[in-house]
Write a structure and sequence with these properties.
By secondary structure, the protein is mainly α. Helix 3 crosses helix 6. The structure holds heme C.
Length: about 160
């Protein structure tokens, strides 16, 4: 039995389905973009090796990130507040900014969590998305903190 909210969300999704077009395609332009991304990464690595420092964390803009979170359809699998959906909770953030960006570039299960490559979305944009996720209040308490659910959890053999 779906709740009104789930039905509305499903409708919202199907309305936007045509919008999920930011996956990489393997035409020559994509290949060139990849080469470029590799070259950029190599240059960045070279410069951080030169200074002997970790690249500084990017300053993310949560307001820009909120729009990007919609544009790149993160909400489709992680919910509008990063707490629901078939993907894992993103709120509160488990990864630090650098780990977050690295994860999105190269997720371990690309068939479940699509990779977002440099050619499709810049580090700065991912930093903005990260800032948005960090800015979200955590609305839903853990199941253990809701007495009725705690009761259920205690009754359920695990
Ligand atoms: C098609 C569904 C889908 C979309 C779209 C999607 N994700 Fe995911 N994401 C997943 C799934 C599923 C996992 C868990 C993958 C696994 O367990 O290997 C995941 C994992 C993650 C993780 C790791 C979480 C952790 O705690 O390990 C982060 C961070 C993340 N996604 C962020 C994003 C962001 C940001 C976007 C948008 C730019 C996005 N995802 C878009 C499905 C999606």
């Amino acid at each position: 039995m779906k709740t009104v909210f789930q039905r509305r969300l499903a409708r919202h999704h199907s309305a936007r389905r045509g919008h999920v077009t930011r996956m990489p395609s393997w035409g020559p332009p994509a290949f060139l973009a990849l080469l470029l991304a590799a070259a950029t990464t190599a240059a960045a690595t070279a410069s951080s090796t030169r200074t002997g420092q970790e690249p500084a964390a990017l300053r993310g803009d949560a307001t820009v990130g909120e729009q990007l979170y919609e544009d790149y359809t993160c909400y489709g699998c992680h919910g509008h507040t990063g707490e629901t959906g078939r993907g894992p909770r993103l709120n509160p953030p488990r990864l630090r900014q650098g780990q977050f960006i690295a994860y999105l570039r190269n997720p371990p299960n690309p068939r479940r969590m699509p990779p977002y490559r440099q050619a499709d979305v810049s580090d700065q944009k991912l930093a903005d998305i990260y800032a948005f996720i960090e800015s979200l209040p955590s609305a839903s308490p853990n199941a253990e903190d809701i007495p009725v659910l705690r009761g259920l959890l205690e009754e359920t053999p695990r």
